[in-house]
What we know:
Elements: H1 3-6, H2 8-22, E1 25-30, E2 35-38, H3 40-46, H4 52-61, E3 63-66, E4 88-96, E5 99-108, H5 111-115, H6 121-142, H7 149-161, E6 167-169, E7 175-178, H8 180-186, H9 202-208, E8 217-220, E9 226-235, E10 241-250, H10 281-293, E11 300-303, H11 310-319, E12 328-332, H12 341-346, E13 347-348, E14 361-362, H13 364-367, E15 372-376, H14 383-395, E16 397-398, E17 407-408, E18 412-417, H15 421-426, H16 432-438, E19 441-444, H17 455-469, E20 476-477, H18 479-487, H19 493-507, E21 512-513, H20 520-525, H21 532-535, H22 539-553, H23 557-566, H24 571-580
Parallel strand pairs: 11-18, 11-19, 12-15, 15-18, 20-21
Antiparallel strand pairs: 1-2, 1-5, 3-4, 4-5, 6-7, 6-10, 8-9, 9-10, 13-14, 16-17
Amino acid sequence: MTLLKKCQREIQSIFAMLSHHYGLTCAIYDTNIDLVAYTDSYEKIWGTKVYKPPIERVFHLKQVVNTSPGEKDICGGCSCYHNCPATFEISQCVCCNGVPIGVLLFVSFSKSRRANTPKNIQETITLIEDCAASIGTIAAGKNSLEYPDAAQEIMKTTLEIAPYPLLAVNSNGSVLAENTAFGFFRDSHIFQEQAFLETLPKDSLYHLLSGKKLNNYIVSLQEDTQIQIETFPIFNAGGQLIATIIKPEYTKQTKSTFSEETSTLNQDIGFSIDDIIGTSPEIKQLKKQVVRIANSPSTVFIHGETGTGKGLIAKALHYESNRKEMPFISVNCSSIPESLFESELFGYEEGAFTGARKQGKPGKFELADGGTIFLDEVSEIPLNIQAKLLTVIQDRVVERIGGVTPRSIDIRIIAASNKDLLQMIQEKTFREDLYYRLNVLPVYLPALRERKQDIELLSEYFLARYNKILNKNVLRIDNEIMKLFQSYDWPGNIRQLQNIIEYCVNVTNRSILTSEDLPIDFVENKREPIPEALLHLNGHAEQKIILEMLNHYGWGVEQKKIIAKKLNMSLRTLYRKIQKYQIEPTFKENNSSEQ
């Protein structure tokens, strides 16, 4: 019996609620493509059989929004091809502990039925995602493993002995234990923000959990990436499969690519400054600066809004330097619980605290020895840890929790934040001395609205990328979309552009992306375009306007935020221009508001 079938009663109750409150037609299929639960309206029109390929496709794409059911090539073998009774479909992969266990369907068969769904596609997508998450939680409860604590601790300790990545899962794919080496493997760019098993193709996952002993089993992922897997199945006395130990590693043929916040450990990725996309004057100048300071041991601070590519610049600094063969360790400070900051950054010795590993654990700074450590969102580091970080930066020594001997380290430190640290210093939430030790070599990343010349190039890059990932063949982007992109101010910067292109490629059924493919929230919430006059200001005119607005609104931080918003620029950019033009208050008393 599949895991979803164990949850049939609970799922049927959820469907009854959705049908009553939203008028939705719902169904869910398990990994065998067997219909597990459904609303009455679904059974009356479709029956209990289904054409399998479109369902199987969802296991790979995770989510499919189809506004023209029955018209796609994948429906070619269906008896309803070109004559499908459905008028609208959203399919969502349901996962339990990161492992796909089924596909959830929301279907509309008529205009009147469709009128009872939420107001727009995005609301419906949110509803189906929440529903899928709830079913996954129910399934996890049904699948809770009664595993003796002692035996589980023995397994964890055994896995830690090995120097290579190991992951133990039960017969359903739920994680039992993993070792530290697997943690580093999982944190690499391929699996960033995703469960390891969730990234694997369905057929590969089936082989891994089949109980067969696999050697040198090759799994192909996105972006020309391959991993080689060896499995060690474990059976009970009755011959029943109870667990599988998985040993993954990258193949030599792997060509790695990057997402914005990559963590890598001793992997020859071959990244270079040429992989930074853009030909605008701002990006050309940025690339020159990166090459110029790459070999310097001095600390670099990357200033930029969310989504501007701070992680990419950090990697470019590392891989253009003489440290490129050594580790590059990326630490997202916003994702570390406050109680774990010290142990994560500086490590701990054996017996340092209850639950500490017997052999102790090196911190991120030790792991980066000889290479580079990138502290992203450094503004999130607690004040008590900032003092210890300052010592590490100044003396290049680190002392583990519970340790008595400082360890010398040779590292290049790169930090970044999307918050205004100068304001945080005024608010006493960030140390001023630490800021100046971090900001030795400042690098300023322009917002996407400040380098609009690159929007078309970036859009084409993302289009090609998601064509490959999603196995689509969208030829180009319509000029109407490009005009919309050029007039938008992109508060989410490159990451927002990337997400929009990915959405468009997912939902389109045409060879050219048009405005009809754009997310509804983007079309409805598109901000007013930047005034044409501001796009062509010379330095003197820009200086005059900024000075006049400062004298009008005031020189305080809050007033500058208002000015930056009205000028469609970031607060950081405004500060940079004030410094560039050496703008000072015309009246001395105006300066008091910023003290």
